[in-house]
What we know:
- The chain is α+β, with helices and mostly antiparallel strands and 413 residues long.
- It is 52% helix and 11% strand.
- It has helices at residues 6-16, 27-35, 110-122, 135-149, 158-169, 175-185, 187-198, 211-217, 220-233, 242-266, 273-282, 285-293, 296-301, 305-325, 330-340, 352-362, 378-385, 391-401; strands at 19-20, 38-42, 47-49, 56-68, 74-78, 84-85, 96-109.
- Strands 2, 3, 4, 5 and 7 form a five-stranded antiparallel β-sheet that branches. Strands 1-6 form a two-stranded parallel ribbon.
- The N and C termini lie far apart (70 Å).
Amino acid sequence: MSTQDPAAVSTLMNLFHRYEPLSNLNDANLAQLAKGASSFKLSKRQRLLAADEHRWLVYLVSGSVQGKDAQGETFGIRAEKKGQMALFDAQPRPVEATVVEDAQFLRVDRKQFSVLMNEQISSSTLVEEIELEGDDEGLFETLMQSYQSGALALPLRESVINTVVSLLDENSGGNDAVLLDIMRQEPALSLVVAHIAGTSGQSAPGSLVKLRQLVDKMDPSDLVADLSRWGADHPFPAAGTAHYERVVTAYDYLRRVGSFSAAIANELDGVDADLAEYAGMCCKAGLVSSWLMQGDIAESAHDDPKHRETLEQLSPLITEMLLSHMRVDSVVMTVVDEASAENYRPSGEVSVSDVLRVARTYLPMDIHGAPVSLVEDEALMELFSRSGIGLRELDIIMEKCDLDGGGNLRMSA
Length: 413
């Protein structure tokens, strides 16, 4: 039976955060989906057939079942707390499922999900700025499919995971400051922690917009288990490969943008430096995911100028999709989106989005590690100059950050 009761809808929305690809929907669409969902129970030895459930995304909420694939092989399936796929979409893919112990299930309308997901993507302001043609449309479709299936993700280096796990296993006080420092050095860790916190369904909107809030929210034992699982599901590219060098360089770039954004914000009254830092670490993260999503194709296509230009054009949208999937708070996403918009115009007071936009354009290298020329945004710099920050002041701030060893300053060399 479907439910319209507000409390039941809220409960279902919290459940949906566990499930893929449902967790890619925003809260408004999750609420809409929940109103049409239905719950049912089956007793031991009762069966579900994939052929009868093609209209639905069926999720195992509690209990366990035995799956059987098309070759007749059987395997056990239990309800998972996070990242659970629909019963007949999971791998290995069962053609039927038999209840082993009393189980509860959810049915979600597959077509309704697709409609809501397509509306969510098409309603993005970033989509309106993209004009694609020819082969680019195929790449765009691949990105959409990856987003809907939950395949957009970021890898973590095994050394980072091992360091965090070892730190938390020590079970001693004073670990928070060390964990914060690791997150600042490896920006992807902050997004993975956001995903772990967001999929728990226990965080309110606007409550996880700073690194410190992410750390405070996490249960150490859960973080250890989830990070280990994340590393297995999203392995880092092998050392010595082109992908490895690109991702390491990109993560270093995101680290620099976050640090520079925080340093600029600290020089301004009324601008949240912690939010600026987190948003800076998230900007352009989608590019990394798009490189890995394409696998071997990207290895050969990465140096093609047309391919790179297309990904740069899609970068704001890919990043928006990635941050949504990683459950990054909408406040942070708004800052990143505003700072990336082609038609961006500063307001009367310096905002966090203004700070991030300046930090990105003033850094002397791009996400590929290549040097870039300074393209000054006159309107934006005029706004900053009224607060006492011009190009030379940005040089001083960047030098204090030691982002480039003082060797690539823009104006003071």
